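Reminder to self: tokens first, then the designed residues, so the page reads top to bottom the way the pipeline ran.
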């Protein structure tokens, strides 16, 4: 999907500096309001201030007036929301639990195959991943006019700790005509409770990475040079 572009007049902007270790660029966000820098500094401080300011992105955005909603001739966006598995709108989710992002939109003209999608970026401006709607009920099927809700489910123990900004978009297929891409439509924080059951396990210090999947591990043990045995065999 398209890369993230920040407004130069209002919102959260990210600048790069080549002063990091091993020549890696260090990214510093800043809050802009009509071109004025309101806050500049470390990511966690600036992003926190941004989310709590009147300029900040929240966990739910709605456009009740279709004339002012993002969209094109075929469809327009009406709402984007972040919800927990028990249907609560939230801006803070447990790293171990699933979270869903829903996109409510109105199809104005029938007869088009549509592709809703999301772009996820972290607080450093890194493109973490994109997700496109592959619901088999509507894949390559033209949609009649009406109101729709397309939802993506993100499993627990996949995201990394920190803030995620979500861009919501929709395009027609064949021909490909983008109806909208609302960058930073919503945002939420992923919180690791450090109880030992997430991907970091018992490691309590810094744990990097754009994602943090909980993967299956197995271990083979070779006592005294004999044939290696699995952990299960050792326990037996």
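Designed residues (236 positions):
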């Amino acid at each position: 999907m398209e890369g993230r572009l920040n407004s130069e007049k209002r919102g959260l902007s990210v600048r790069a500096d080549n002063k990091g270790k091993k020549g890696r660029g260090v990214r510093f966000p800043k809050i802009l309001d009509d071109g004025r820098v309101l806050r500049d500094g470390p990511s966690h401080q600036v992003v926190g201030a941004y989310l709590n300011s009147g300029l900040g992105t929240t966990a739910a955005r709605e456009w009740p007036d279709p004339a002012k909603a993002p969209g094109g001739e075929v469809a327009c966006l009406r709402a984007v929301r972040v919800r927990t598995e028990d249907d609560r709108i939230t801006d803070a989710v447990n790293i171990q639990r699933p979270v869903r992002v829903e996109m409510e939109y109105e199809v104005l003209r029938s007869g088009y195959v549509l592709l809703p999608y999301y772009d996820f970026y972290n607080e450093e401006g890194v493109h973490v991943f994109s997700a496109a709607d592959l619901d088999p009920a509507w894949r390559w099927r033209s949609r009649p006019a009406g109101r729709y809700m397309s939802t993506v489910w993100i499993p627990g123990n996949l995201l990394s700790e920190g803030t995620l900004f979500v861009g919501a978009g929709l395009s027609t297929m064949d021909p490909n005509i983008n109806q909208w891409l609302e960058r930073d439509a919503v945002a939420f924080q992923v919180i690791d409770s450090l109880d030992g059951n997430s991907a970091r396990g018992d490691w309590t210090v810094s744990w990097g990475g754009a994602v943090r999947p909980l993967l299956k591990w197995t271990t083979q043990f070779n006592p005294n040079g004999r044939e290696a045995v699995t952990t299960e065999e050792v326990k037996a």
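The chain has two domains: 1-56, 57-210.
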